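My hope is that you will study the protein record below before we discuss the fold together.
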Amino acid sequence: MKALFPFALLLLSLSAYAANNANPVADSIVTVSQVYTGTEEQALDTGRADSVALKRCQAHGYANAEKLGPEQQTCTRYTGYYACFYHQVDQQYQCSGSLE
């Protein structure tokens, strides 16, 4: 019985921490990614990315999607000569407004 008390106290503390630190802003952020191959960097297809972000935001009950910062280029695989061959471009969007 004494061994259960510290465990119960820890569980209660963690659940209270999670409830107090819920971040509604983080719940309304979506990331749109584009993957391409080749050794030259390419820009994100903004028209398509904007459309995808808006659809995702609307599916969660928001009316708008606004870009958050610049797009992020990441190399996911290199060639044998250490040149990037598989690229991933990510753009984050903030969902805002209500559909009602």
The beta strands are 29-37, 62-78, 84-98. The longest strand covers residues 62-78. Residues 28-98 form one domain. The first helix runs from residue 4 to 20.
